Amino acid sequence: MKLVPYRRNAEIRPMSNMLSLFDDFFNRVYEDEASDDNFRAMAMDIMEHDKEFEILANLPGFKKEDVKISVHENQLLLEATCNTKKEENVGTMYRCERYSGSYRRNLLLPDNADIGKITAKMEDGVLRLSIPKKEPSPKQEISIQ
Hints:
Elements: H1 15-34, E1 44-48, E2 52-58, E3 67-72, E4 75-90, E5 93-108, E6 119-123, E7 126-132
Antiparallel strand pairs: 1-2, 2-7, 3-4, 4-5, 6-7
């Protein structure tokens, strides 16, 4: 839980909005460094339709080879790792940029999710998972002897 300080006269002090921006920036930096594995959670949309669940996960710049999807005991684990290096050597200019990043998301699937029929598709930096629903089992009545 994140505590946000209450500023009573925010409209009187125009600098308070600027200070709030700095607070937000430093709080985010601290939260990112505080994670155990330096993994970040990817942004995603989760939708329920009549016959399936649909998950859209944002993974810009990642290739499908960089993404790992696994299911264990009704828990869906999405992991993505990217290591890129871009070099330019033109005339007297030299530039090298490196990026390394990882995302991880663990979701608990509902009991009516058909884990054996999950499909995944990666297109334009968006991972789309389709998780079909199982047919509900019919209600059984037990007779009393």
